[in-house]
Amino acid sequence: MRLTKFTDYSLRVVIYLARHPDSLATIADIAREYDIPSTHLMKVVHRLAQCGYILTVRGKGGGMRLARTPDLINVGDLVRDTEDNMDIAECFSPDHQSCPMLPACALKSVLVEARKSFLATLDFYRLSDIMGGATPSLVAPLHQAHGTFAPPSPGKKKRTS
Question: Is the pTM of this model over 0.70?
Fold first, then answer.
């Protein structure tokens, strides 16, 4: 399963905002930090605001911030809200049922289980869990280039609720 750039950028936006809770961030700030085109971020920010993950303030001195604390933002929910299509095979779509193996295909049930497991793993984490340990996988190259990268602390913090 591969997440779209839209979801990747959405995760980067909320991670950035979680790391800068004391100020309003702008699209330009995030675009500069992660080397993402501002035009893409405008769409991402719009969706995140619609879904209630961020609050935006218009006008001079405006920007955005998280609408909830990082411990209240579930990674699985965010991925579901930003991925338009979680179909991992053509046969998942009701519009594309041309596979000659249907309806007796046993692979589809395995793929359904795999998708459920993927999302269940994401559901296990909150934004607060990925701000430190998993963040380097999203931003390591950028921070290493600027000499500000710190390796993650040993051991993952997991949430059970």
Answer: yes
